[in-house]
Amino acid sequence: MNKKFDFYFDFISPYSYLAHKQIDQIKKKTNIEVIYKPILLGGLHKLSGITPHAFIPSKSKYMIKDCKIISEKFNIPFKFNSYFPINSISIMRGVFFAEEKKKLYEYINAFFDAYWKQGLNLSENKNIESVLNSISINNNEFNKFISNERIKNKLKEETNIAYDKGVFGAPSFIINNKLFWGQDRIEFVLKEINK
Predict the structure, then answer these.
(1) What is the pLDDT of residues 22-45, one digit of tens each?
(2) 4-193, which class in CATH?
(3) How do the domains of the chain map onto residue ranges?
(4) DSSP assignment of the chain, as one string?
(5) For 138-156, what is each residue's pLDDT tens digit?
(6) pLDDT by residue (tens digit) across 51-63?
């Protein structure tokens, strides 16, 4: 029985945040392992020829209400960020740094909370630095790491690999070579795990 699944996410996706928080609740009750897969959602949309909801006024308006309904259902603290959308490339590259520093979960949780719970503008370096300080990550080391060509290429490669596997949005989950898209598909992921 496969007790792990891949979780494709980008910090700018409110649905990824809501999925992350639901997964947290599930992990407290089970021994399921989550493999966090950082992608650049903008790049993935470009590869897929998709116009993001943020740039379609009617969908954007609906998304704000929808996220509120979901957050209330699962009792998840949530505030739709007034700076949405931002360019998340720096903090997404930073996922690899946090992984090397053995602070992956702390990093993911801190940046999701900063953007979707605290409403910070993560386009501003001072806010990124503040989040890094809160989890004891050195800002200078972080900036040097994410500026490295190897890391720049790694995020592109991970996004391309996700696209090649059929991923077209976030959050997405892959288990047993099956793709599930959307925070409302977590229950199907769990059913697949428990087969």
Answers:
(1) 999 998 888 899 999 999 999 999
(2) alpha beta
(3) 4-193
(4) ---EEEEEE-TT-HHHHHHHHHHHHHHHHS--EEEEEE--HHHHHHHHT---GGGSHHHHHHHHHHHHHHHHHTT------TT-S---HHHHHHHHHHHHTT-HHHHHHHHHHHHHTS---TTSHHHHHHHHHHTT--HHHHHHHHTSHHHHHHHHHHHHHHHHTT--SSSEEEETTEEEESGGGHHHHHHHHT-
(5) 999 999 999 999 999 999 9
(6) 777 778 888 889 9
